[in-house]
Design a protein that fits this description.
Layout (H helix, E strand, L loop, with lengths): L2 E5 L15 E2 L2 E2 H10 L4 E6 L12 E3 L7 H11 L4 E6 L7 H10 L5 E5 L5 E9 L3 H10 L13 E4 L1 H4 L14 H10 L6
Parallel strand pairs: 1-4, 1-6, 4-5, 7-9
Antiparallel strand pairs: 2-3, 6-8, 7-8
Helix pairs in contact: 2-4
Length: 197
């Protein structure tokens, strides 16, 4: 069994508007991600601070149990809800997130509590990563002490940083690209105006 969680509960402060409503290639970011991941994962949840948001998106919804704590809230709710061994977190603002790369990361995660993709710089991306259910006690402890950075979990458990070499054919330079600002969105449209899919 495989479970993916599309994180769409952010406040989009740097964008100045709700970036999950922006349209790229005719679809919103979460809509496109749900379609991509649903083709390859057994279960795909849409993680939201408010379960009633984006009513047009047809997907099982996962509401934060501890609101206001960012992606840590989404991870917490997902690990509490899943019957799988863990969940794959993917940010909703990653237009080129690849479910096949995600499945490869899950495969590589055997024996680890967390497996996170890392770019060419070696910097891990906590929002394109697998989290085993064994991480849940650490997530709950982090929420209790007010530490909401997912990367703070990494030193506390068995963590694998998945390099481009490890991903092999599933690696792409744009895999971890995310859209945070109006400039990011303009660059996205300008760089990839005519691609399909």
């Amino acid at each position: 069994m495989s479970t993916a969680v599309i994180l769409a509960g952010g406040q989009s402060r740097r964008m100045g508007k709700d970036k999950m409503t922006l349209t790229y290639r005719g679809k919103t970011f979460p809509q496109a991600a749900l379609e991509r991941f649903s083709r390859h994962f057994d279960t795909v949840w849409l993680s939201l601070a408010d379960a009633g948001k984006y009513p047009d998106l047809n997907a099982p919804r996962l509401a934060d149990l501890v609101p206001g704590c960012g992606p840590m809230s989404g991870l917490h709710a997902a690990l509490r809800a899943t019957h799988d061994d863990g969940v794959f977190l993917v940010a909703g603002d990653m237009p080129f997130s690849d479910p096949l790369a995600a499945l490869k990361i899950i495969e590589l995660a055997a024996g680890y509590d967390i497996a996170a993709a890392a770019g060419e710089s070696g910097r891990p991306e906590p929002l394109f990563a697998y989290y085993a259910k064994t991480v849940l006690p650490h997530v709950e402890a982090a929420l209790q002490r007010g530490d909401f950075k997912l990367a703070s979990l990494f030193p506390k458990v068995r963590t694998l940083l998945v390099t481009p070499d490890m991903l092999g054919k599933y690696w792409s330079e744009r895999l971890l690209l995310n859209v945070n600002t109006p400039e990011d969105f303009a660059r996205l449209a300008g760089l990839f105006p005519s691609e399909n899919g």
